[in-house]
Amino acid sequence: MEMALNLLLAGIVIVFFVLVLLIFIIKIYSAIVQAAQNGSQKRKNAKKAAEKKPELIKAEPQVSTAQPTATDNEAIPGEVIAAIAAAVDAMYDKPVKIKSVRRSRANSGSSWRNAGLFENTKPF
Q: What radius of gyration do the chain's Cα atoms show?
């Protein structure tokens, strides 16, 4: 009986030791791969920064004579349009022209429902 308990205890200790050893090996491997990826990304960013010199563009305000076509006082405030334009500018590397900004169609349920539908019906 004593020999069986010693064998059981030795087996458990060896298994957990090997598991801890594998955890450390995987963590070290992960750190090496991540350092290599970060190094290559930094080199790419440095190369892009060296190739791409910032250009100063003088923005001229454009005056639009068209009246907003809003119904029932649903005009979009200028601050919202400016925020949308800033988000679009931050999203793309090249200058883009925003042709129009309009409200989305009427809500067909809650935002959570719409997010769930979008998440579960994405194409492959």
A: 29
Residue count (the chain): 124
Q: How far apart are CA 76 and CA 71, in angstroms?
A: 11
CA distances to 10, 84, 90, 101 from 87, rounded to whole Å, are 61, 5, 5, 13
Task: Evaluate if residue 81 carries a pLDDT over 80.
Answer: yes
Q: What is the dihedral of CA 52, 55, 61, 65, to 10 degrees?
A: -50
**pTM (2 d.p.):** 0.34
Report yes or no: 63 and 71 within 8 Å, Cβ to Cβ: no
